[in-house]
Amino acid sequence: MIVYGLNCARQLQQLVLAGRGIVPLLAMVAPLVIIPAEFIILVYAAVQRQHVVAVLVVTRGLIIVLRVQSISFMKKNNKHLIRRYLLWCYKMTKEELERIDRKFTQLAVDSFVLREFEKNLKSLKGRSREDFAKKINEFKDYMATKEQNANGEKFQDLSTKQLKPHYFYLTQRLSAIEKSIVSFLGRSELKKIQELYDQEMIHRILESREHT
């Protein structure tokens, strides 16, 4: 970290604004001064000109140059890194949350299927009816187990619908990640990431990979 004396602070600012970079400033270095963290006044200023950015921290009588870097390089590379990280965060959180939520959506579909089974059962007789009725009962048992597991993973107290701490955390994390995507990358990018995730889930199903 390079610290400059107050007497050259104005010249320092003028050089940065002129886009002359960090090299000319080295000739102006005053004796290094170690400043305790508690003295730092957190006032930040970003000075941008001719693809040069300097982030300054104003302290008691001193200016500290923290970083000088190409704006275009910083934006291009950081955006790729941020996008990949947010995509990973979205995928991992959404997937964990859906392992619970999809049980409830599946139960809604299963209930419809069960009603259709029971309608068809009425038209059957004899051995065919008995065999089909047995399959229907097995399907009901499957649904009951799924519902019990789903409620156990989502609710701390089913009677009051109090959510389990981890499930609540996942809902809040997903919401925060989606807002982060909008903030850093834009709302259109959130839609793209959601579509990519949906395509991946469909691809898994078509390849008969885990989706239970």
Summarize the topology:
Elements: E1 2-4, H1 9-17, E2 44-49, E3 52-59, E4 62-70, H2 71-121, H3 126-154, E5 155-157, E6 162-163, H4 165-185, H5 187-206
Antiparallel strand pairs: 1-4, 2-3, 3-4, 5-6
Helix pairs in contact: 2-3, 2-4, 4-5
Kindly state the percentage of residues in helix.
Answer: 55-70%
Strand content: 5-15%
Number of strands: 6
Which strands sit side by side, in order, in the main sheet? 1-4-3-2
In whole angstroms, the N-to-C terminal distance is 54 Å
Report the principal-axis shape: elongated
Task: Tally the helices.
Answer: 5
* Alpha carbon gyration radius: 30 Å
Quaternary structure of the protein: single chain
Please tell me the overall pLDDT: 75
The biggest sheet, with number of strands, parallel, antiparallel or mixed sense and barrel status, is: 4 strands, antiparallel
Parts with pLDDT < 50 across at least 5 consecutive residues: 1-10, 15-74
Helix-strand sequence: EHEEEHHEEHH
Helix-and-strand structural type? alpha+beta
